[in-house]
Amino acid sequence: MENIHSPPERWRLITIDWIDAVGKTTLAKGLSERLSGIYYKTPWKKTKEERNHFDRPNISVQERFNFYSRALKEDAMEISELLKTWKHIICDRFVVSTIIHHKAMDKNVDVGEIEKTGHLPWLIQILLVATKESILDRLLRREELTRFEKDEDLMIKSQWLYIKRAFDLVIDTTRFSIEETLSRTLLLINNPTNYEKLL
């Protein structure tokens, strides 16, 4: 497929969300290449050591959320500057996933600090989903199977209808190959009249 040269200006910021092994990074990098855009993975400004500290079991969910909320605020400022380049910014995980994950860990966590962070211009939000079997298979091939137990728990506890409504496009990567997923996403970005929800 050829690169898209004149997609709708208001959809220059593309965020891709959900749990590991649904194809977020593959799609984000593919879109970056096809659109000659900038690939941006959050939390961009935080080191692995910082993330590991706040991912420890003895850190409260609120403390963890506050850390990632601050990180996303820094990312949002950086993204706002990058948007001035008039290039597409393809963001690997963003605000909605952060809220959903922490709400699943503790429904009482206060997420008010982050809610305005996602109010950036020209934004389209994409949610990728996959079956449990597909995710397990992908993690097994990556030798990261132990990571699934936590993510599975989050997936079951999260409110699916709420998640769905928060996104502009939902694609099941079990049903569609990465090339098909990429093509459908490009079709939507190029022509908003092609908008549809895909489960």
TrEMBL record:
Domain Thymidylate kinase-like: 19-152
InterPro entries: P-loop_NTPase, Thymidylate_kin-like_dom
UniProt-listed Gene3D superfamilies: P-loop containing nucleotide triphosphate hydrolases
Protein name: Thymidylate kinase-like domain-containing protein
